[in-house]
Design goal:
alpha/beta; Rossmann fold; 5 strands; 151 residues; 5-stranded parallel beta sheet
Length: 151
């Protein structure tokens, strides 16, 4: 494969999994462009009211922010060649599940990334994935195999 792949990294924002994939992609010299959501939690939560104005009801604050974040998320997932969705065990990632479903609906190749104890609760999401990884290194190895056709 001679062209670069666009890989959207969705999911939890509280660990370094994105950086580990980026470092692995760089170390392997893979032609991969990584994109993802705004990973700064405060910015993601506050973007709607910061840009469009304050709200007195938290529902409308969250509604504005979710819609602005959706512009980025939907656009980048639609443009992605591959979507990786990370589920962590500390927080419920409803947005990650939504992103996985959106990617599946668009027929995007989907890789899920989560620890083994989450296998049962994520069985339906994993069933839509073409690969289920437990480590960022496995994701990098999958990308290398897809791009270069070698182990």
């Amino acid at each position: 494969m001679s062209q670069s792949l666009s890989v959207y990294l969705s999911g939890e924002i509280h660990t370094d999994w994105r950086e580990r994939i980026a470092d692995g992609v760089q170390a392997a010299s893979l032609p991969v462009v990584l994109t993802g959501p705004v990973a700064n939690h405060a910015s993601s939560d506050e973007c709607g009211v910061a840009i469009l104005g304050d709200e007195t009801v938290s529902f409308w604050k969250d509604h504005k922010g979710a819609k602005l974040n959706a512009i980025r998320t939907r656009t980048l997932i639609e443009k992605a060649d591959v979507v990786v969705v990370r589920f962590g065990d500390k927080y419920r990632q409803w947005n990650a599940a939504f992103d996985a479903g959106f990617a599946a609906a668009l027929n995007k190749p989907l890789i899920t990334l989560h620890d083994a104890p989450l296998t049962h609760p994520l069985k339906e999401v994993d069933a839509a994935a073409l690969a289920v990884a437990e480590t960022p290194d496995q994701v990098v190895r999958i990308l290398r195999y897809v791009i270069e056709g070698r182990l």
